[in-house]
User: What shape does this take?
Amino acid sequence: MNDTTRAKVKNVFVKRRSLLLGMAAALLGLSINMPFSAPASAAPLKLEKEQLKFGFIKLTDMAPLAIAYEKGFFQDEGLYVTLEAQANWKVLLDRVITGQLDGAHMLAGQPLAATIGFGTKAHIITPFSMDLNGNGITVSNAVWAAMKSQLKMQPDGKPMHPISASALKAVVESYKAQGKPFNMGMVFPVSTHNYYLRYWLAAGGLNPGLYSPTDTSGQIGANVLLSVTPPPQMPATLESGTIEGYCVGEPWNQAAVFKGIGVPVITDTEIWKNNPEKVFGITAEFAEKYPNTTIAITKALIRAAEWLDADNGANRAEAVRILSKPNYVGADEKVIANSMTGTFEYEKGDKRSIPDFNVFFRYNATYPFYSDAIWFLTQMRRWGQIGDAKPDAWYADTAKSVYRPDIYLQAAKALVAEGHAKEADFPWTSDGYKPATAAFIDGITYDGHKPNAYIDSLPLGLKDKQQVVGTEVVAK
Amino acid sequence: MSMASEAGTRAMVFREKVFAALDRGGRWFNVLGFGWVVPILKIIAGDSPREQLTELREKLLIPLFGIALFLVLWGVLAPQVKTSLGAIPGPVQVYEQGEALWADYMSARQQETDFYARQDARNAEFVASGQADRVRHFDYTGQPTYVDQILTSLKTVGLGFLIATLIAVPLGIASGLSPTFNGALNPLIQLFKPVSPLAWLPIVTMIVSALYVNVSDAFPKSLVISAVTVTLCSLWPTLINTTMGVASIDKDLMNVGKVLQLTTFTTIRKLVLPSALPLIFTGLRLSLGVGWMVLIAAEMLAQNPGLGKFVWDEFQNGSSNSLARIMVAVLTIGVVGFVLDRIMYALQMAFTFQENR
Assistant: This one.
């Protein structure tokens, strides 16, 4: 027998022995943590860094991270991962930049904003999109009562969905007549919530305000004043009347319903069907220094996302149990259960079926599409976070430097070779752009190849070569 | 006749010795907060019950009554207030959550043991199959438990307090001995004393992130940031009290030092420190108290995995148990603060000269 054959025989023995050991350990281990499993039959990647720390914010869409840990997907790749909840999005981003965290659950806008220099400048990339959809806009009881009279009703007496912001317009105007400002909250200046809230308001004819190079409050010329509030404090600020509504991820919309302090009016999947939401962000240096580790992390996360969407949501109940542990999302199980198992409660008692409220793997949710990155960049330009007009090529180049489908596809290929994923599940031949879509609440078409034309086609916001100087919009 | 009375006298003398010993030891029991044990021991030793019962009433029954009254009021008033996180938890729910936290700790300990067992098994595997280079010894990757968080907080406050003492005591001695130095330092002290820890935090974070290189895993950046914030807020009481203690040293002592032509170092060691020690210790006690309070606030934002982060994470969870768990944390913080203070007081009693020794 030559060396390779000997090694192969040894390999077989190792696998069988470790399989038996694994079964024994799995029987012994009562906890749901880390079932022992043998290294894959393909030669395992030589990892440069095995001990990792990832940060997250307590929202239900951190699920892929929690599942990858609890179901042993990280461990299968040889990674020793610690998950740590962070106080807010700014602290999370700073800690990734300074290296205290190796990677984190991030808002899709954060890697983009950091790379272009809006806020702390750092080159952050993402090889994995964590989910689609998952947000909602909630308003206070008082505002809902005033809005209801404007709404078209279904035959069964419930409001017809989707509810446009034009129903809110009359309420905002009545506030203005009384001299009161109309405040709403979102979680971060470059958060997806900010952009979806603004999109919804603009589609209904309300001006959410502009940013300028010297004024980062985002309230220039606004009908509705938007400000940053951390997600856990949103119900409290809504109750106290500091804000009249907010856009945030789960469980904070359903929590408002359970506590009787607010009514969700729309979910973001009704604003843009299957919109990009959170991504897994790492610094560009990390990916350069530890390429195999990055691929291993992506593999584990893809498996977790697959598990979450498997069998028409068969695993979602277990996911809810895992997420309600105090070290993950921590909210009560019944609050998380709604959105994670395909229903959403609007007004108390008005439960509707939204099977795609959280999409983790279907519809290519995990592929980091350039067109998604470009959409966020167009919104940053529309509202003035990007001060001057940029050529179409700039949008494409920025998206390419931040979103990394190349890493994603390497991970996917390895998973298919190991038998953990099916080849048909991945868009191998995609150029990184989703086809042009009009699945928005106002029906405007978005084509990722033509960002400037798209910006010009939108109501409200900066267009063409406009800039904000002081409090005026100036055409250059 | 004489035998009986002799025995009786000997017994009485012995009893008096026991009482005297109990009285002396009683000082220490007082310091540690167990003053009520002494009357009980005395009654057991045979002292007149009526006197001891009066003392017992003062030291044990009245405080117990105060605590009991508080618990009853809490239990009655709490459910009347309904917040959006449910009614405010009463003592029973808080106790239940305390038990739940302990159960979590036990199960986490079990998971940790399992983790290490699995790692050992895997390492043995690798060695046996000739892949010794894949042997790894990593720390448990799970969440820090409640007990771990208490220990992290103690470690952080210890580090911060130590740094504060090392800075404040020498500066205070110099200030006390030299009015010029004091004049120069005083405006800075008055300016920075009122600054809150949350105002220092962003600055400290930036500086530590830029300058600090991870010495070891036992002192990660987040711990150093919290410790430095604790230092900045807690060094003022020690500094001011040390200055006062040194400045108010008896002039005669200083003259003795001059007559004997002692070096400055010997003067400080033999004359200044011993006479200033009571005030220095007062300062240290205050500093530790302030430091413990500041730490909880600093941890909420500096992400140091201690009690402050526990409170903040529970607030973020917003579950129906959260308020009760936060109250368990509040009580823990209070108890630990009390214990720290008692330790400092005991040290103070041990190392300083008291008039009524």
Q: What stands out?
A: Residues 70 and 164 of chain B are 36 Å apart (CA to CA). The beta strands of chain B are 82-83, 86-87.
